Amino acid sequence: MNKKRGRFSRVLLAGEIVILGVLVFLIFRAVRNYESVPAASAAGSQAVRSAELTASQSTGSAASEPAESAAVQSAESAVSLQETVLQPVSEAASVSSPETLTDVNALPAGTVLAENQIDSNHLESYFISNEIAEGDAVYQRINQKSYRKNDNIGLSDLRYLKVIFRDFNNQIQVGEIIVNAKLSDDFLTIFQELYQKDYQIRQMHLVDNYWTGDGESTDTASIEDDNTSAFNYRTATGSSNLSNHAYGCAIDLNPLENPYVVFRDDGSGKVYHAASEAYIYNRSSDMPHVITHDDFAFQLFQEHGFSWGGDWNNPKDYQHFEKKVS
Ligand SMILES: [Zn+2]
């Protein structure tokens, strides 16, 4: 009796293992097919999901072969339809590649773009100024971090810029930066001209990505990562007064190569980041990413009425450009 029951159990167990194996295989195949769908946009992903839902409803099984193909095909056609819709009708003829990027706002900062994704006839479309409103996605990232409600600067005084630039590997990257609304046109023009000159910037993210709990040490963390940034509601380095960064009126460009230097009485300079030691004295325009009076970024910012921290006596702040607004 026991022996018989034992054999029966083994048969049952073997059956369960086979069923489990088939299920795992079907799930694996479904996941693999799902990942192969170009889901670059939320709408695309939505299409995949709704197509899958339709397929599973009509066949009773999301994993059966025909249903999967139908789901993938329908998702692909939804994605290509969306790409078509995104192209402005009047400009459709000038699009050089079906992969041309039409909405830089849709991509997160740090995204690396292929050369053929840029339509050089409409470069200005990759340099965008956005308002920030309470509750929106940018607000959610900055609230109680680089931004908090105060009497000096409001959300309506700030603009969130999306731009493209050349990184240190000469690749095209998407960047983000928050600046004063009155300077947003200056910044957009400058960034576009920097891009056209292949001027290299390490990276450009909001300082909130480095948030440590207070504005000053967050600034330190952002600099350690050689991050280019502007707005941060904080005091000036070594002072209890608000920094021009607190108004979005100052930018720190490639900060490790262009450090904040305090000179001692004996003439020696002190920096706050070890990686900047090599950039205190031996600063020449031949060195990559070093800002001097011969540097293209310096010349552009000067043309637009900015002053440069490298022209201060002591300390010198080689990364820093600022412009007063009325
Ligand atoms: Zn600065």
Structure commentary:
The protein has 326 residues and is an alpha+beta fold. The chain has two domains: 2-86, no CATH class; 104-322, no CATH class. It is built from seven helices and ten strands. Strands 1-4-3-2 form a four-stranded antiparallel sheet, with helices on one face. Strands 5-10-8 form a three-stranded antiparallel sheet, with helices on one face. Helix 2 packs antiparallel against helix 3 (65-86). It is globular, with a radius of gyration of 27 Å. The termini are far apart. Zinc ion binds at residues 245, 250, 252, 317, 320.
Write the topology of this structure.
Elements: H1 2-36, H2 42-59, H3 65-86, E1 112-113, E2 128-131, H4 137-142, E3 158-166, E4 172-180, H5 184-196, H6 215-224, E5 250-252, E6 260-263, E7 269-270, H7 296-303, E8 307-308, E9 316-317, E10 320-322
Helix pairs in contact: 2-3
Keywords:
alpha+beta; three-stranded antiparallel beta sheet; globular; about 35% helix; binds zinc ion; about 325 residues; 2 domains; disordered N terminus
> Approximately what portion of the residues adopt beta-strand conformation?
5-15%
What is the helix tally?
7
Number of strands: 10
Give the mean pLDDT: 80
Bound molecules: zinc ion
Integer count of domains: 2
Strand order of the largest sheet: 1-4-3-2
Instruction: Report how far the terminal alpha carbons are from each other.
Output: 96 Å
Biggest sheet overview: 4 strands, antiparallel
Which spans of ≥5 residues are poorly predicted at pLDDT below 50?
1-6, 33-97
Helix content: 25-40%
Structural class of the secondary elements? Answer: alpha+beta
Q: What is the overall shape?
A: globular
